[in-house]
Design goal:
Elements: H1 2-31, H2 39-57, H3 64-88, H4 91-128
Length: 129
């Protein structure tokens, strides 16, 4: 049973990477735009950053109004990216492409956050000794 706890997440990640690569190739060949080297990917990244910021601010009782602004920016930028992708392709492919851009953006942002938190914790531990 413990082997499944390792194999299933690896299979999910591998399958997701396969789907992203296939859709990115299709977008490049059929519609002429890329997955990551694209302005809509920048919008998706900014959208995720504002959504994460809104989530962090929502824990502060005085930050509730700011949290709503961050959520509005998150939804607005995500909608704008989806609109651009739909205009360049078909509606079905544009929406699917935007969702996969969010998945790819999380795959880019999460390791960066983990790297910086690891570096910070290592600096704190080095100063403790």
């Amino acid at each position: 049973m413990e082997a499944l706890a390792v194999i299933i997440p690896i299979a999910i990640v591998a399958g997701t990477i396969f789907v992203i690569m296939k859709v990115a190739r299709q977008a490049s060949e059929q519609y002429g735009f890329g997955m990551i080297r694209n302005w809509t990917f920048a919008l998706v990244l900014l959208s995720l950053i504002s959504g994460f910021s809104g989530w962090v601010v929502s824990f502060d009782p005085q930050g509730q109004a700011s949290s709503l602004i961050f959520v509005a920016v998150w939804l607005g930028l995500g909608g704008w990216a989806a609109y651009i992708n739909v205009q360049r392709s078909t509606p079905k492919f544009g929406i699917m492409f935007t969702v996969l851009q969010y998945v790819a953006a999380i795959g880019v942002i999460a390791p960066i956050i983990l790297f910086f938190t690891h570096q910070r914790s290592m600096n704190v531990m080095r100063n403790m000794g």
